[in-house]
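Q: Sequence in, structure out?
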Amino acid sequence: MANNPRMSRRTFSKAAAAVASVSVVQPGSVFGADANSRLRLGVIGPGGRGRHDASVFITSTNTQVTALCDTFEDRLESAAEYLNKRLVDRGRPKIDDKHLYLGMESHEDLLSSNVVDAVLITSPPYYHPKHLEAAVEEGIHVYSEKPVATDVHGAKRVIAAGKRAEGKVSIQIGFQLRSSRAYQEIAKRIARGDIGEPVSGQVYYHTGALGDRSKPGEGPDKTRLRNWVFDVALSGDIIVEQNIHCIDIANWFLNSHPVKAVGNGGQKARTGLGDCWDHFQVIYTYPNDVQMSFTSTQFLKGWGDVAVRIYGTKGIAEIHYDEPIRITGDNKFKWEEGSPFDGAESGRISEFVDSVMSGNYINAADHAAESAMTSILGRMAAYKGQELTWKNMERSNQRFRVDLDI
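A: Exactly. Output:
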């Protein structure tokens, strides 16, 4: 890997900044016949998820990955090797070594490099607001993985950045199941009244434990950062980092967010790896007194499932990560056109790239922050062991502070 001195955005000259502003993709400027018209993508935090998402960009769209940045050299080099192979397989250039940036603040170098039109943010979630804000400030389009924040303060930052981005750049969030044709069909049928008035429901995410990512001999701060999925401040706990997928679907189907929550949970089965809980139970109350029970586990061996089930006055809408995906009751319906995942991930990314190409910019910042705060509401209520309203959660402006010496 090339040894690149870090160049902070704060020290970048005005002339260089002016040149960088020219790099923003204008409507109709991508997807042309030659290589110069490809969307140029930088990746912030290309770990497992980042490599995967970037690969989908490469295989599903006319995207050229041009820059990577990470705190760990081994991950940076591994990601470059992995993505270069996929680029070469499709007749595209490798990533130039001089655009592999190393360090905790290396996103500054990537964003001011003048080689990216869009950025994929797959860093630990605690840093998502910071990285999203910086990209918007530079006029760079954003595809960020969920959750967009781990605390209330961060979610508000994302909302504010989304307002500044409106009409200027696209912001898309990796809730790929919102791009699932199966789930879109269920959402449409709920919205038109096929299950009648929603009364109550169930949301759950039950899955197995995640693996230890630490490396022998590294200090506590590096270990903490590598194992961010087990760290409440860095990940938001399992209800925010992982379970947000089904919580987001519940908000989508009910077209609202909860007004209050009460819950509990703890760390009992999976101990010795960080401070995240391994199970949650939360009762969310949505407008019109719709009661949604939420449960999750992250330690199971054997059975697992992810589902949203809404009980209405005319029927029941039900989705799973597998089957069934259906409505029972007065207006029966069953999805029989394959897996709900078919085309969902590539479709989500293609929607983002198409928005950049056309100039019809999309902005998912608000609903992504709303889903993050719904998950945060459940976490805070469960930690407190008492009812917490949405308004009081917002007023708290709860904020984590992480200071790592890497």
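The first helix runs from residue 14 to 21.
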